[in-house]
Amino acid sequence: QVRLVESGGGLVQAGGSLRLSCAASGIIFRINVMGWYRQAPGKQRELVASITTGDDSTNYADSVKGRFTISRDGAKNTVYLQMNSLKSEDAAVYYCNFKAMTVPYGTTYWGQGTQVTVSS
User: Which end is more exposed in the chain, N or C (fewer Cβ atoms within 10 Å of the end residue's Cβ)?
Assistant: First the structure.
């Protein structure tokens, strides 16, 4: 079974930066969207950013626009999240997500999550 493996989380001071990475442990065919979600304690999981593989169009949550950048390496089936100007409200467990266009309903893959802690 293919897994998504995340790395790059940790503790950072407010205003600092982190770069998250997520790679598949094996081959996943027909990925059409890669994304990052986050979940803070007591809150629902929310979409942070996504990127489509067809045209590299991106989508960001309003709360991270201008601070976070999502990118991907198609050859490596890897997605990145560059997080700058981190705020205390960015602290959460971050999960990567791949959506593949398998027949008939598609397949969604999730990473195990990586903790991001922001100290003030």
Answer: N
Beta-bridge partners for 80:
21, 71
Per residue in 44-102, pLDDT tens?
999 999 999 999 999 999 999 999 999 999 888 999 999 999 999 999 999 999 999 98
Cα separation, 120 vs 109, in Å, equals 33
What's the token pair of residue 38? Answer: 């986050």
In Å, how far from its chain's centre is CA 28? 17
> Between vectors from CA 11 to CA 111 and to CA 69, what angle results, nearest 5°?
60
Contact between 114 and 7 under an 8 Å Cβ cutoff? The reply is yes
Beta-strand ranges (E) seen in 40-91 are 46-52, 58-60, 68-73, 78-83
